[in-house]
Amino acid sequence: DAKTTQPPSMDCAEGRAANLPCNHSTISGNEYVYWYRQIHSQGPQYIIHGLKNNETNEMASLIITEDRKSSTLILPHATLRDTAVYYCIVRVGEYGNKLVFGAGTILRVKS
Amino acid sequence: NAGVMQNPRHLVRRRGQEARLRCSPMKGHSHVYWYRQLPEEGLKFMVYLQKENIIDESGMPKERFSAEFPKEGPSILRIQQVVRGDSAAYFCASSPRDMPYEQYFGPGTRLTVT
Fold this sequence. Notes:
The structure holds 2 protein chains of 2 kinds.
Chain A: E1 9-13, E2 18-23, E3 33-38, E4 45-50, E5 55-56, E6 61-64, E7 70-75, E8 84-89, E9 105-110
Parallel strand pairs in A: 1-9
Antiparallel strand pairs in A: 2-7, 3-4, 3-8, 5-6, 6-7, 8-9
Chain B: E1 5-7, E2 10-13, E3 19-24, E4 31-37, E5 43-50, E6 53-56, E7 65-68, E8 75-79, E9 88-95, E10 104-105, E11 109-113
Parallel strand pairs in B: 2-11
Antiparallel strand pairs in B: 1-3, 3-8, 4-5, 4-9, 5-6, 7-8, 9-10, 9-11
């Protein structure tokens, strides 16, 4: 399994970009990088995923380094409602479907 | 398009009783997953099911826990003879067949064992 390392917590000012890093130095060539978040006591929410190209959707951008050993999730204009635990996941299960959640990064957006 | 639905949202059981948690996947999704989140801990995978089949149950406790996803109706996570340590939030997720990693989670069922 490709293990991920994320900082335990980060603060961000409201309206500024939040950049959440993730290290996955043992990632293999066919493993995707997925990001989910969990707002307090709610079910996790899928954000974005990528293989090697940078990706953008309505929620966020994902920047993956050329060697694929690390990535950064970018929330371009963080709001108070983006306060959550953010999980970077690269593991695939034996059947390719289970998600293995680590401790994640607690992002606190402050006004 | 309704999201993943779980019921009940809160369930209180006495030790030794049975708990049944239900999950209706999003329309068109044929894959269902159950995860458990113990208080102050992270999410742990329990089981992955497709219609009438258990695909991966590597995260299920060996005893008292079972899951099914019948041809018709919701997926059911069943916990027999509950103990206090079963108190947790149980989340169900579903995904379409062609995008298995884009899992959409329900609001969870919070089980309290007294």
